[in-house]
Design brief:
With 392 residues, this protein is an alpha/beta fold. The chain is built from four helices and 17 strands. The chain has helices at 6-15, 21-76, 78-92, 349-382, and strands at residues 117-119, 126-130, 137-139, 152-154, 159-162, 176-178, 183-184, 200-202, 224-226, 233-234, 248-250, 255-258, 272-274, 279-284, 296-298, 303-307, 318-320. The radius of gyration is 43 Å and the shape is elongated.
C-alpha cells in the first residue's frame, strides 16, 4: 500500500521556512490519524470482501447440492417424473377448461386414475394418453417424449397448435399416434422415422407444410398413414415403397405435384390409395395395377392426362377419376369405376375428335348441296338445256 506524500511535503515546507514548526506538528498528527483511519478502512473492506465471497460460494454450493438432490430424486422416482410431465401437459394445454378433467392435478390419487391416462396393469408406467375432442388448446410441450412407455397417443379433434414435438420419436415403443383435426403448422419431423414399431400415423386435417420426409419410410410396421387435408407439397417420395405393411394411404387435399410415382405399385398389401385433390399430372403408371389387394383408388381432381392400360383397372371395386382431363375410357364397356368418371362432363379425346370429324363432314355435304342447287338454278335462268345422250 502506497504511503501518502503530504506529510513529507509538510516537512519540506518547514525546512524551507514556509510554515511555522507548531503548525507542522499539528499537520503531522493529523496526517498520522488520517493514515491510520485509511489503513483501517482498507482492512475492513478487505475482510468484508472475503466475507461476501465466502457467503456467495456457500450459497452457490447449497443451490447446486439442492439441484443435484432434486434431480437424483426425480430419476430415482419414475412416478414423480411421470406426474410432473402430465402436470405440465395439463397446464400448457389449458387443462382447467377441459370439459373432462377428472382427477387431474389431484395429488391424493394416482395419476393412473386421471381422465384419459392409461397405465400398464399393476404398474405406474403410462402406456396410453387418450383425450379426443376434449378442448386441448395451446402448444404441446416437448417433455411428452419423457413418457417413454407410451404405446398409444390419441389427441384428435382438439386445438393443439404450433410445432409437432420431435421428442415423440424418443418413445420407441409407440404403436398408435393420432393427432388429426388440430392446428399443427410445422413440418413433419424427420425424427418420426425412428418410430420403428408405429403402426398407425394419423395427422390429417392440420396445417402441416413442406414435404414428406423420406425417413418416414423407416417406420416398417406402419399399416395406416393418413396425411390428408394439410399443406404438404412437392413430390411423393419413392421411399414410401419400403412400407411393405401399408394397407391405407391417404394423401388427398394437399399440394403434391409431378407424376404419381410408379414405386407405389410395390406396396403389395395396399387396399386404399387416395391421392385426390392435388396437382398430380402426367400419366398413371400401369405399375399400380400390380397391387392386387387394391380395392379403392381415388385420383380425382388432379391434372392427370393419361392412364396406361385403363382396362386393367376394372378389377378395382371402387375408383374415381373425376376432374382429370382425358382419362375416361373411350370404349362403351361399362367399367366398374366408370360410374365415378363423369365422362359426359369431361373433354374426352375420342369423343371430341369424332364430333369434329362429323361436323366437318356435315359442312362439306352442305357445301356440295348448295353448290349443286345454285348451278341448277343458273342453268335454268340462262335457257341452257342439256341434250340427252339418246339424241346423238
Amino acid at each position: 500500500m502506497a504511503t501518502p506524500l503530504w506529510p513529507l511535503a509538510v516537512l519540506m515546507n518547514y525546512q524551507m521556512n514556509l510554515i511555522p514548526l507548531g503548525d507542522c506538528q499539528d499537520h503531522l498528527m493529523m496526517g498520522i490519524h488520517k493514515q491510520l483511519i485509511y489503513m483501517w478502512a482498507i482492512s475492513l473492506l478487505r475482510w468484508m470482501r472475503i466475507f461476501f465471497c465466502v457467503r456467495t460460494v456457500a450459497l452457490l454450493t447449497v443451490c447446486l447440492l439442492s439441484i443435484t438432490l432434486v434431480s437424483a430424486q426425480g430419476f430415482a422416482d419414475f412416478d414423480a417424473g411421470a406426474r410432473g410431465v402430465l402436470e405440465e401437459f395439463y397446464i400448457s394445454l389449458d387443462g382447467p377448461n377441459w370439459p373432462s378433467k377428472a382427477g387431474w392435478l389431484n395429488r391424493t390419487m394416482s395419476y393412473c386414475d386421471w381422465h384419459g391416462v392409461q397405465c400398464a396393469p399393476d404398474s405406474t408406467s403410462v402406456v396410453g394418453l387418450t383425450l379426443i375432442n376434449n378442448g386441448l388448446n395451446g402448444q404441446m410441450k416437448f417433455s411428452i417424449g419423457n413418457l417413454k412407455d407410451l404405446k398409444s397417443i390419441s389427441l384428435a379433434n382438439n386445438h393443439i397448435l404450433g410445432f409437432l414435438p420431435f421428442t415423440i420419436s424418443r418413445i420407441s415403443g409407440l404403436q398408435y399416434l393420432n393427432l388429426s383435426h388440430n392446428l399443427f403448422d410445422s413440418s413433419i419431423p424427420k425424427e418420426f422415422g425412428l418410430l420403428s414399431q408405429l403402426q398407425t400415423l394419423d395427422m390429417s386435417q392440420n396445417m402441416l407444410a413442406e414435404e414428406i420426409p423420406s425417413e418416414i419410410s423407416n417406420c416398417q410396421s406402419l399399416n395406416y398413414l393418413d396425411l390428408s387435408k394439410n399443406r404438404l407439397r412437392g413430390k411423393v417420395p419413392d421411399s414410401l415403397q419400403n412400407l411393405q405393411q401399408l394397407q391405407y394411404l391417404n394423401l388427398s387435399y394437399n399440394q403434391f405435384s409431378g407424376w404419381i410415382p410408379g414405386s407405389l405399385g410395390n406396396l403389395s398389401e395396399l387396399e386404399v390409395l387416395d391421392l385426390s385433390h392435388n396437382q398430380f399430372d402426367g400419366m398413371i403408371n400401369s405399375t399400380l395395377q400390380h397391387i392386387h389387394s387394391l380395392k379403392v383408388l381415388n385420383v380425382a381432381w388432379n391434372q392427370i392426362k393419361v392412364i396406361d392400360d385403363f382396362e386393367r383397372f376394372d378389377e378395382i371395386s371402387t375408383c374415381n377419376f373425376t376432374g382429370n382431363p382425358f382419362v375416361c375410357p373411350l370404349s362403351e364397356h361399362a367399367y366398374k369405376c366408370d360410374a365415378y368418371c363423369k365422362r359426359d362432363s369431361l373433354p374426352v379425346p375420342g369423343i371430341a375428335v369424332a364430333s369434329v370429324f362429323a361436323l366437318i363432314l356435315g359442312l362439306a355435304a352442305g357445301i356440295v348441296f348448295v353448290v349443286t342447287v345454285e348451278k341448277e338454278r343458273l342453268r335454268q335462268e340462262s335457257g341452257i338445256v342439256e341434250e340427252d345422250d339418246d339424241g346423238f
